[in-house]
Write a structure and sequence with these properties.
Layout lengths: L2 H23 L5 E2 L3 E4 L4 E8 L3 E6 L4 E4 L2 E3 L2 E7 L9 E9 L4 E8 L4 E5 L5 E3 L9 E8 L3 E4 L8 E5 L11 E9 L8 E9 L5 E4 L2 E5 L10 H15 L17 E3 L10 E9 L17 E7 L22 E5 L18 E3 L22 E3 L40 E3 L6 E2 L4 H12 L22 H5 L10 E3 L4 E4 L3 H4 L9 H4 L14 E2 L7 H6 L15
Parallel strand pairs: 2-9, 10-17, 11-18, 20-21, 21-22, 22-23, 23-24, 24-25, 25-27, 26-28, 28-29
Antiparallel strand pairs: 1-3, 3-7, 4-6, 4-8, 5-7, 8-9, 10-12, 12-15, 13-16, 14-15, 16-18, 19-20
Amino acid sequence: MTMKKLYSKLFLLALALLSLSCMKEQVVDFTLDTDVLEIGPEGGVRTLNVNVGESWVASTQQPWITVSPANGRGSVECKVLIDSTLKWNESREGEVFITTRSSESRSFKIVQKGYDYQIVMDNPEPVRIADYADYGKRSFQIRIKANVDFNVKIPSDAESWLKYKKSNLVLDRNARPREVVVDFDWETSYVPFERIAKVQFEPVKTVQMGRHDTLNIVQRAAPEIEIGTVRGDSLAILAIHRALGVWDPLETSERLENWSGIKVWKTKDERNGRVRSASFSAFTTKEPLPYVVQYLTAAEELSFYGNTNTFLLNDLDCGPYICKLTQLKRLRIGAYGLCSVHEDIKNLKNLEYLSLEANNFQRIPEVLTPENFPNLRALMLNGNVRYTVRDLGNDKRENIGGFVDEEGFPVRLLTWNKLDTLCLSYNYLQGELPSDEQIDSILLAAHGKVEYWRSNDPCIKDSIAVDNTFYEDHNIAKVMPSTIALSINLNRLYGELPQWLLYHPKLDLWIPESLVWLQDGVARNHTPAGFSNAPTNMQYYYDELFINKKNNPKNFVEE
């Protein structure tokens, strides 16, 4: 062996010894950076540093603990995944073992707290809402996590403008909170100050709450309306337009008196310039007449006509606010979708004209009586059909409107002596008109007596034949003596026409050929509509009785 080769082998041997020495110096102690990991009941992820000089494996007997990675070599940062607990107010413990290839072992504990009873909102900040939003947009949702069922408690002073609907809370995981949604609907505000509601979530059973959130709702103040002023009326008209969703905008750059559908008072008193009459048409709403309508305290006449899709609307009422305008003389709420009127409408004692046509009434509102409306002269109830149904006997649909649920003809309306106009056309009134014998009983019950037409009656004497004793001989009852316009056509009426109608002194003014005799369709009892003794013309009326009345222009002038 040459000296050169010997030196080379000695050099390699020295390098090997040096390398071995270094490896011994790099041996890492087996350590974990903690002995205990603590976590809340909701679980989560914690980090653990494992320092081992050789390969190792992590293991645990607890299914709610997962270590990732579960094995490795040398120093590794591990993620400890801990599931949420199902326990109430009770901690649970688990242990994780780290075992090396040489069977050396270390362990650390997992300590997890149990759940307290809780009702917790996702966002505990106050909910701020506007004073107004379009229908269908006045709502919001609150998401709540809870492990105890609860009721929603709205303060009594907020119940009029705040409603809620809570979905079922399904507690299917013991103490683990589950999410539930509470939907809130709010009403438009017309008050010039903030409205605040502190909504409580009350547990249905008595428990010690760990966290218990409260919902604070703050509604923005509405613009102040000065009641009894021109400016106040202007703001009220704008608010009504907005609430109803009137299609055509107002020209607010003009004076109030130039706004579409508005007439103002031209007087020298406090009413001067204020709204005298207002008409609202072509709008979209699913709500009663708005709160702010009550501020039109100088108006004599109001009209609301032409809501969209009225046949789809159910349980819609006119609301109480229109009923506060006791100075009204003329009111029209037509084609609105009404199924009822508020009982306080009887407060409108000064009404002379009331139109409720083209709505969805199943019955004629009970509140419509001469006692409740002593000054009423015209009552319009025509066209209250939701669907066109010719044969009521073979149609099984409900809520078709047209006063279909009236039990026969509404005889109480025939006792309304002050009415000069009664319109009942195009409805589903059914049955026979009351006979002459029946009408006597009806009038006796209503007025305590029965009056009969006589030839010397002011509305008869100038037109009847000379020396005619027809009325004295036949005792025709005075039914609706002031009525100069009656229409009952296009209903489902049938049977005989009674004499009180055939010989009514003002029959010719009613244009009976088209507005009385003409019926259509089939009643629910399968009887075809139509009167069996309907005259073909009015000759009997003019030739035998009122010989001076035909073609007399005076007969077409309101008395």
